[in-house]
Specification:
19 helices, Helicase, Ruva Protein, domain 3, Rossmann fold, 5-stranded parallel β-sheet
């Protein structure tokens, strides 16, 4: 079946569902949005239409089909057409299927019974994504550096931006987790919508529910006006949950439900309201370890950690230090109305050799202090005031990081370097590392390295 609006539009959608009434409802809704659509009742028919009537700007597919499932279609489209967003329709309460689809490369998901408001929001996001050039930073402050880890990070961000899957960003304090989240938002379909950053550790526990979900006037003492929460403020855009490990367990339960149902209830409210947000979370703590000790809910962890992006420490990208130092100095001087000083060669050498336990944030603090104390147009090594830190790539006995975390970071770095050298050919990278392809694939999955 094919439905077309009166005025022909270049945007076309493939709808795949074996239930004809649902398929017709979806196509009718799309037609009212001014979109063309083709309908298919089986996986085979969908594949035929993709080859015969493409290109499409979006594919909507049910998870269960008579001759296969939606994941087969997600994978096929991912192999043949990286730019076509695929959204899956899952049974009510089947979050495992939704997460599996997102991990396989789906753009987003809808739960049955399908909310037409949610469908329209998803379609608008997908069409904005199709119209936007891949990897377009759209004016955001980009992550700088040409070291293999940073090149890999930017390539991953370009891919992750073209999805609505929840992302968990891990990494040490000061390694640029929020900057990475902002770049994912800026390169994606939601770039024109709000980016709301929340420091979960800075909110008093008794105010958390109100801050996240909002409240009605008179809901509690002091609620003298209606107020929207973070979810409502980020509607249509991205909600960045920084230091998510600091959320108390009671709030973790409520957050999990809001993410799964895509609906929230304000304190004092009698009904839920739909919210359309992409969730990106981050923490410098080891979430897996917190799950094992019972301090973080396992179900919320798996819901947030659909895709993991690990930010490398600055000591893993030493060749980027001179570039970052000059960039930070230029910005600091521009803000202060000063002429940027020259950094001497010994100063750059000292910075490049320094381990930076505080990462880029510490580099900025060192340069800001040196700029304030220097009395000349040249920053020398003595102006930096670097304190000797016992770190030569080996963990200190007082470090919070465990031996396993240290070993994982070294393994991750070796794999990323091998992938970079081989143009991300996993077979060639496995040979370079001296392991089997199967072993490399397992290690990449365990460390959260995605292509």
């Amino acid at each position: 079946m094919s439905l077309k609006p009166e005025k022909r539009s270049p945007s076309r959608v493939l709808v795949v569902d074996d239930e004809e009434d649902i398929r017709e409802l979806l196509q009718l809704t799309l037609a009212r949005m001014g979109l063309e659509s083709d309908g298919a009742g089986t996986l085979a028919e969908a594949k035929r239409l993709l080859g015969q009537n493409g290109p499409y700007q979006l594919c909507l597919t049910d998870m269960r089909l008579p001759d296969g499932d939606g994941l087969d279609l997600v994978r096929k489209i991912g192999e043949s057409s990286q730019d076509l967003p695929v959204a899956v329709i899952t049974a009510y309460g089947s979050m495992e299927s939704a997460v599996a689809a997102l991990k396989a490369g789906a753009f987003d998901y809808l739960s049955k019974p399908v909310s037409l408001d949610s469908l329209r929001a998803l379609v608008r996001s997908a069409l904005r994504l199709s119209a936007a050039p891949a990897g377009d930073p759209r004016g955001t402050a980009a992550l700088l550096g040409e070291s293999p880890p940073m090149v890999q990070i930017r390539q991953l961000i370009a891919k992750l931006a073209r999805s609505m899957a929840p992302i968990y960003i891990s990494g040490e304090s000061g390694s640029g987790k929020e900057l990475a989240a902002r770049q994912i938002h800026a390169e994606g379909a939601r770039s024109a919508q709000p980016f709301v950053a929340v420091n979960c550790g800075a909110i008093p526990e008794n105010l958390m529910e109100s801050e996240f979900f909002g409240h009605r006037k008179g809901a509690f003492t002091g609620a003298d006006a209606e107020r929207e929460g973070f979810f409502q403020a980020a509607h249509g855009g991205t909600l960045f949950l920084d230091e998510v490990a600091d959320l108390p367990l009671a709030m973790q339960v409520k957050l999990l439900r809001a993410i799964q149902e895509k609906r929230v209830r304000r304190i004092g409210g009698t009904s839920e309201e739909p919210v359309d947000v992409r969730i990106i979370s981050a923490t410098h703590q080891n979430l897996r370890q917190l799950v094992e000790t019972g301090r973080f809910r396992q179900d919320l962890f798996y819901r947030l950690n659909v895709i993991e992006l690990h930010m490398p420490a600055l000591r893993e990208c030493r060749e980027d230090v001179p570039l970052l130092a000059r960039h930070i100095l230029t910005r600091l001087c521009r803000e202060a109305g000063l002429e940027p000083p020259h950094i001497s060669a010994p100063a750059l050498a000292a910075l490049s050799a320094y381990p930076f336990p505080g990462n880029v944030r510490e580099l900025e603090n060192i340069l800001e202090r040196a700029l304030a104390l220097s009395g000349s147009g040249i920053l020398g090594e003595e102006d930096l005031g670097l304190c000797p830190v016992p770190l030569s790539g080996e963990p200190d006995a007082d470090d919070a990081a465990s031996l396993q975390e240290y070993l994982d970071s070294q393994e991750r770095r070796a794999i990323l370097e091998a992938l970079s050298k081989t143009g991300f050919n996993r077979t060639a990278a496995a040979k370079l590392l001296g392991v089997t392809f199967r072993s490399l694939r397992y290690r990449m999955e365990r460390l959260g390295i995605t292509e």
